[in-house]
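Input record, target 12 of the design panel.
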């Protein structure tokens, strides 16, 4: 998979294999932008939902319904709360996977110890780097506010920030959605030269 390829403007279409990262804060429109990119891909779109479905949580069910109503009827939907690498590996060049979202998937695995978590993330990163399909990943920006008061919150923030950065380093296009605007960071930004592996816990 090539890095920093063009999908520079809204009319560009992804090539047969491309990794696109869309990140942003809550209610920023990041999922809507990811859906727009998927619709423009010209490929068979599979929406990969990473959330565990809890029928008793009415507010969460309402959020899921809003997402479902926005999606075209011909899109397939898969519930994949754990094994992301398998679905990425199984997709073909005619497919577009829209994975929403990275943070929800991570939350499902938050209780894993550090060694197991590192093994899981390395498998996902390897699958993304070798993917044959277009993969559009939605991620949340959670580290722009106060430091979480609880250890689990700090662990979630740190793991998500690190993984989002690792994916950004291998992505062809990275978008930030904020304040009602979409920014193409691959065009506007300058990638950090040092490896994410050199970043120590608590840095940046």
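The sequence produced for target 12 reads:
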């Amino acid at each position: 998979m090539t890095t920093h390829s063009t999908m520079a403007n809204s009319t560009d279409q992804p090539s047969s294999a491309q990794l696109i990262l869309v990140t942003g804060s809550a209610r920023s429109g990041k999922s809507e932008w990811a859906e727009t990119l998927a619709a423009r891909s010209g490929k068979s779109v599979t929406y990969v939902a990473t959330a565990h479905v809890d029928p008793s949580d009415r507010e969460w069910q309402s959020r899921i319904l809003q997402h479902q109503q926005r999606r075209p009827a011909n899109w397939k939907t898969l519930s994949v709360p754990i094994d992301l690498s398998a679905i990425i590996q199984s997709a073909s060049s005619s497919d577009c996977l829209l994975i929403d979202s990275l943070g929800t998937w991570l939350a499902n695995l938050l209780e894993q110890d550090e060694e197991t978590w590192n093994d899981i993330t390395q498998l996902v990163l390897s699958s993304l780097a070798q993917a044959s399909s277009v993969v559009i990943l939605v991620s949340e920006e959670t580290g722009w506010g106060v430091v979480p008061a609880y250890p689990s919150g700090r662990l979630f923030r740190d793991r998500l920030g690190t993984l989002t950065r690792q994916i950004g380093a291998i992505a062809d296009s990275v978008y930030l959605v904020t304040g009602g605007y979409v920014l193409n960071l691959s065009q506007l930004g300058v990638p950090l030269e040092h490896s994410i592996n050199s970043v120590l816990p608590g840095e940046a």
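The domain at 18-198 is CATH 3.40.50.300 (Rossmann fold).
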